[in-house]
């Protein structure tokens, strides 16, 4: 999943001064080239004439379902095989660390202090002022889309206007977000830790992956979920879930770093069984591998999200939270034969 970078006038000077684009551009914005005042090497597809290595960091929340060492090794092997079969890369994935998620965020707090203008784009729906901003974000995100597309994403009935769609989307978003954040855990807590909201914050993960130097690909058994000023229709329809993200990174050989969250696939909480459907135990790692290939398509092939492609296209995001259906379609139908546009910048 890659996310829209919305332009806000009051942030423009800060972003240009920082000289950074921390989150991904999509569609026409992505193909428009670099922004004035931002200097970055042009994006080119990572060559396939030599072997590549991806350094993998596993960040674990011990409260959540997790992968043991053997399962992580099996997952990395599955991704290596798919990179060869689907994309033509001879790749090795090497785990460089297995660390506690909360402790990692604490030790990297300097990253968030370095990018306050990015972190402040997170929204807290418990605050009245942010609920007003959330309504504006949703209205703007839905405006370019035909009502039929919005109906499909929201799994709604007939919509008569964009105003009605925005009101419904706001209500659906808040309902799903509340359910997600309150998923109960075995220790009596809930998924969202009120003392550590940054652990699930998309904007914090943007800053973190942009500045990451020790790894190119992050797996975490947690998830990214919440409200922010960069959400598009797909994320809004999911209640704020970003299962994976490819982000600009000026420190590694790929100009990009990827995070893949696994809680949406490892958990069988009632919310997931209702909204995602069951995942056979034997296929959990394969579903995670499919999502990883979606993100690595952005990272290595520089492939953008397509428009008008079938649901079986690995480069197209899953509709709502139906990740398993999306995975099954892709594995059944093979790679999408249609042409795919390329990113020119993150």
| Count of domains | 1
* Overall morphology: globular
Return the structural class.
alpha/beta
Helix and strand element order: HEHEHHHEHHHHEEEHEEEHHHH
Unreliable runs: 4-21, 24-38
Which sequence of strands runs across the widest sheet?
2-1-4-9-8
Largest sheet: 5 strands, mixed
Q: Average pLDDT value? A: 89
C-alpha-based Rg, rounded: 19 Å
| Helix share, percent | 40-55%
Q: How much β-strand is present in the residues? A: 5-15%
What's the total number of strands? 9
Distance between the termini: 13 Å
Search tags:
alpha/beta; 9 strands; 14 helices; 346 residues; globular; single chain; 41% helix; two-stranded antiparallel ribbon
How would you explain this protein's 3D organization?
- With 346 residues, the chain is α/β, with parallel strands linked by helices.
- It has one domain.
- Strands 2-1-4-9-8 form a 5-stranded mixed beta sheet, sandwiched between helices. The chain has a two-stranded antiparallel sheet with strand order 3-6.
- Helix 2 links the parallel strand 1 and strand 2.
- Helix 6 packs across helix 8 and helix 13 packs across helix 14.
- The relative contact order is 0.17.
- About 10% of the residues have low confidence.
Write a compact overview of the structure shown.
By secondary structure, the chain is of the alpha/beta class. The protein is 41% helix and 12% strand.
Topology of this structure?
Elements: H1 9-18, E1 52-60, H2 69-87, E2 91-100, H3 101-107, H4 109-114, H5 116-119, E3 122-123, H6 128-142, H7 147-154, H8 162-181, H9 202-211, E4 217-220, E5 224-225, E6 227-228, H10 233-237, E7 241-242, E8 244-248, E9 256-261, H11 263-266, H12 270-275, H13 284-301, H14 323-333
Helix pairs in contact: 2-13, 6-8, 7-8, 13-14
